[in-house]
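Re: [help] complex structure
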Amino acid sequence: MISNFGKIILAFLASSTFAMQPYNVTEGVTPMSHQIYGLHMIIFYVCVFIGVGVGVVMLYTLYYHRKSKGAVAAQFHDNFWVEVVWTLIPFLLLVVMAIPSTLVLMRLNDSRDAEVNIKVVGMQWKWRYEYLDQDISFNSNLAPSIAKAMNGELTDEEKANPNYLLEVDQPLVLPIHKKVRFLMTSNDVIHGWFIPELGVNRDANPGLISESWAYIEKPGIYRGQCNQLCGSGHGFMPIVVVALAEKDYDLWVKAKRKIIPESEADKIINKIATEVNPNAIKAEDDSQKTPEQIAMSKGEGVYENNCAGCHKSDGQGQGIFPKLVGSSLATGPIDPMIHQILYGKGAMPGFKSILSHEEIAHAITYVRNSRGNDDKQKYGATAGGLVTADQVAKLDK
Amino acid sequence: MADQPEKGLMRWVTTTNHKDIGTLYLLFSLTMFFVAGFLALIMRTELSSPYLMIISPLTYNQLVTSHGLIMIFGAIMPALAGFANWQIPMMIGAADMAFPRLNNWSFWLLPFATFMLMSPYFLNGPPADMGWTFYAPLSTTYGPPGTDAMIFGIHMLGISSILASINIIATILNLRAPGMTLMNMPMFVWSWLVTAFLILAIMPILAGTVTMMLTDRHFGTSFFNAAGGGSPLLFEHLFWFFGHPEVYVLALPVFGIISEIIPAFSRKPLFGATSMIYAIGGIAIMSFVVWVHHMFTTGVHLGTQIFFMYTTMIVAVPTGVKVFNWMGTMYKGSITLEPPMKFAVGFVYLFTLGGLTGVMLAIVPADYQYHATYFVVGHFHYVVVAGLYLGLVAGAYFWVPKWTGRMYSFKVADWHFWLTLISSNITFFPMLLVGLAGMPRRIPDYNLQFTDFNQIATIGAFMFGISQILFVICMYQAIKTGPKAKKIIWDGAKGLEWTLDTPLPYHTFEKPPKVTGKTYV
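Output below.
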């Protein structure tokens, strides 16, 4: 009986609604985040001490010096030494706080001698990561897609995800036990790259580069969000960092650089995701698919995150944004379509510096082969077709 | 000069009487307080649970912007100007403000400026959606058409504040009764004198900033556009060089109100009055050299961060001195807790909590974990709502019966106090906690881990909003239906305004009184 009762209590405590929600700054997983946490707790206790002190004196006065208690007002209105003391004590307290804060701050701002350099580019509303020491770069979008989240089209399963709004399609992968330097900038407006567990919080300003760094001590998945208001998608551009042990990281880099099959990269991330949370939703295994299937499934993701905002998920367009279903560009020759996506036209931005050649190729393949656009009888021989990254590269001068 | 006001609407349109204009300011402010509060309740409803429910993310951003701008420029600043208009001439023994017609103009700019600010909602908008800090380039290159209405609205609000400040400075420096030296002025007058100089110093900077925005948007300049050689950081520097002293523009006059109320109900002179004046001056001067503490995470140079960390910590010292002086005033007094005193004591404690969270934010490494999270939202709402709003209500409960000659119900006012005290803590304390847990501000939807605290905050916000109806009831009683008040309303209150009849005649001090000795300070 008792054990059953205990189980019920445990289940009650473990159920998400009644579990204690986080209410303090995280200790984090870097030496700097530990030091920040230490400073935070010291200043917190100093403030609690002062707050309680002020409260106690006030309550004492309000209780004992009441007219109804027969208190007669004293008429003093100055006391030089008391005033000197209560000016000096807070001042000295602050001096004591200032010294360790300055030391930690100096270390926090010293990003010299980094072993890994990552350029972080904020844009409405996703992050782009460029590994400056390796030839790797990719965009990181809200998963399953920003268009779905902002239009309220998520399924119940996606909504119940404990990482709701904190999941991305491609996380930033970093090695542990290496000093990683981040160089932040932005393509459009000011964004903020904030990951509490790494103790990193830096704005990404257009036209400027700001620096920060982290030395991660523990493999794991660390999540954050953009924290500078950057337009309507501001709440929907999360940051996910996957920290890997050195061996796994090297393998991941090789997979990303296509020295070994790229599907190896997903396997590594799936493995750590399962270690962190056995119920995590796993990325699909692409190794059994045909190139067409891969292009279609990846293209859908690229489309949802980059195109659906204007052209809508169903490709019907809206207002000044044209319909893609049956449009002459989406069913005609391939090159003009690649050209427009690379360089933009009118209100449409160019995606040359936002998407990789491969991503553009996937998105074009997806648009050309979905919703009946590949109907050769209706639209002629040019409709449909599998587009490759090389075709895109040829037009990108 | 007629002894009685004109009848009808034209009285309010053409009035040059400081009391009428004060009334206009205060009623306008109360209206805008409810308008902007309503916007906040829409946001709190959206945040009462994860997932988008009633408004789109774009609408949410528009509400964030309007709520902030209207509360600051439409509710708090006019309330302060209202108290200044009513009280300053009477406290220094003047017949009216120095420039009565200018006074009328300063007020009547306000409703039109606020209407301009709100107009995109009624016209074919879309309204500004980049927060009350309207950072470039989100407000320039990416700003919706309604941004221009905001720019012109801010220009007009700025002109209104500058004119009111010139008037207040001229009044205080020239129209004091014989015998009232500067160091013998009431603390409320002192705080407004310093505030008026602050406004004169910062409003032109804001005006310049929004003009640069306007030319960036329409005339091809690149002040804030990196592609043309400008810098978005320049905008942040300019904005916060205005924005930080603006915080003290809101706070200092309320410090003045509290410094009048606490001695009155402690029946004891203000403790350390001279050091209070120096503290006000010290805060005002320091407020010009702390602005980068809003920008610690922008990537400014290490040396800059260290300098502004120290200055920000130092500004806490004169603020602490003020709190200790208020406590020193109460200590060994003969205290009664009528509604104005309840609100004043509530102000002192909750403002202290707001100030202490500010000290935490000053520690730059810790700020890296607090910056742009709900901790900041909690911090400044503790200062402005749980602090300054309580102080303004205290001022209204203290002086309005004297002005109108009618008393409100203490019972209703006590309910108002307890409900406001409790609900403001229910609203803003969870924000501090959820902010420490890492929830960013200005987001319409959030991860499930932040749900509980947001739900508590939403419940508190609705309690707070509904409780303020009690304030309207009390004020209605004080103006229309309450019992007649005696000449001496608060037995401990000292000052020239309390030597006058209740209710106050339409014109007061047509012959200046003679002030002898150290009356106040």
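The first helix of chain B runs from residue 9 to 14.
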